[in-house]
């Protein structure tokens, strides 16, 4: 299960903890008059709240180019010492859609697939337009395998199955990460 930090930023730039319940999140948003948006991300039954604050007409948060992934929840992660911003696929519909049909990801570096428990199954590239590497991590977010996948135009498409069960799978454009050593841990920042 992922442990994610829940923080809201005030106009003074100081961080304050916010309750993880939706009601407390809404209450916190309404008491901060400069809050312009609240985004909620659910990952393995944890909730992360990100707020964007404004001072006059200047926004303190960076506007993201989500490319073809507008509307997807995001998370900052670190793997192999490299920080990445990824779209989250944490429910069956999102995992089934994945990066199919995506031509460009904008400011995003890839997609993180989140499962509630370890699974052993494959990924395929049907309808996926970008060559991808996929790194698999177990329940403890420890690296278990990495594979390179190519877009599929044939039917049926081949499946890419890791050597061990996984609970997290990270798809990134081919060559984004160097080969990962045994023991590499995925850090999910929220």
Characterize the main sheet.
7 strands, mixed
Helical residue percent?
under 10%
Low-confidence stretches: 1-61
- Evaluate the radius of gyration: 18 Å
Q: How far is the N terminus from the C terminus?
A: 13 Å
How much β-strand is present in the residues?
35-45%
Q: What is the structural class?
A: mainly beta
**Helix-strand pattern:** EEHEEEEEHEEEEEEE
Task: Outline the secondary-structure elements.
Layout: E1 7-9, E2 15-17, H1 22-31, E3 35-43, E4 46-55, E5 58-59, E6 74-79, E7 82-89, H2 92-97, E8 110-119, E9 123-124, E10 132-137, E11 143-149, E12 159-160, E13 166-173, E14 187-188
What does the model show?
This protein is mostly beta strands. Helix content is 8%, strand content 41%. It has helices at residues 22-31, 92-97; strands at 7-9, 15-17, 35-43, 46-55, 58-59, 74-79, 82-89, 110-119, 123-124, 132-137, 143-149, 159-160, 166-173, 187-188. The strands form four sheets. It has a seven-stranded mixed β-sheet. The radius of gyration is 18 Å and the shape is globular. The model is unreliable at 1-61 (pLDDT under 50).
Question: Quick recap of the structure?
Answer:
The protein is mainly beta and 190 residues long. 8% of the residues lie in helices and 41% in strands.
